[in-house]
Amino acid sequence: MKKNKIIFWTATVIIFLFEGVMPALTSQTEMARQGIQHLGYPVYFGIALTVFKVLGALALVIPQIPGRIKEWAYAGFAFDFLFACISHWAVDGFGGEAIFPLAVLGILVTSYIFYHKLAEL
């Protein structure tokens, strides 16, 4: 039980930092704007993406959020990581920038699995 909680919270906090804190602090930088434009997306897409990432990250770490909303947050992040991989692959070819979202997806899947293990108890 304690091991499951540690794994869940470690994976979930990593997702929270990557998808909640980092975008909130860096989304309005010139580098972030150039990154979105480099992939062919308009700047307003980056703003919307940041808002939904922060909301999703909060949904995952706040225990009082209903399970149905957490499920939507997990699904949203899964789509985000898959499409980030596809976007980088299409524009830059298959390399580190296309693989990184898949690595973070693995952390998300770990959080999801252990979320359900803890919910069963």
Topology:
Elements: H1 2-26, H2 30-38, H3 43-61, H4 67-92, H5 96-120
Overview of the molecule:
It is a single chain. The protein is mainly α and 121 residues long. The chain has one domain. 86% of the residues lie in helices and 0% in strands. The protein has 5 helices and no strands. It has helices at 2-26, 30-38, 43-61, 67-92, 96-120. Helix 1 (2-26) packs antiparallel against helix 3 (43-61) and helix 1 crosses helix 5. The longest helix is centred in the middle third of the chain and has 26 residues, at 67-92. The radius of gyration is 15 Å and the shape is globular. The model has no long low-confidence stretch (mean pLDDT 94).
List its traits.
single chain, 121 residues, mainly alpha, 5 helices, 86% helix
Judging from the principal axes of the Cα atoms, what is the shape? Answer: globular
- β-strand percent reads under 5%
Largest sheet features: none
Q: What is the averaged pLDDT score?
A: 94
Stretches where pLDDT is under 50 for at least 5 consecutive residues are: none
Q: What is the N-to-C order of secondary-structure elements (H for helix, E for strand)?
A: HHHHH
Question: What is the CA-atom radius of gyration, in angstroms?
Answer: 15 Å
Structure summary, number of beta strands: 0
The helix/strand class is: mainly alpha
Q: Into which percent range does the helicity of residues fall?
A: over 70%
Individual helix count: 5
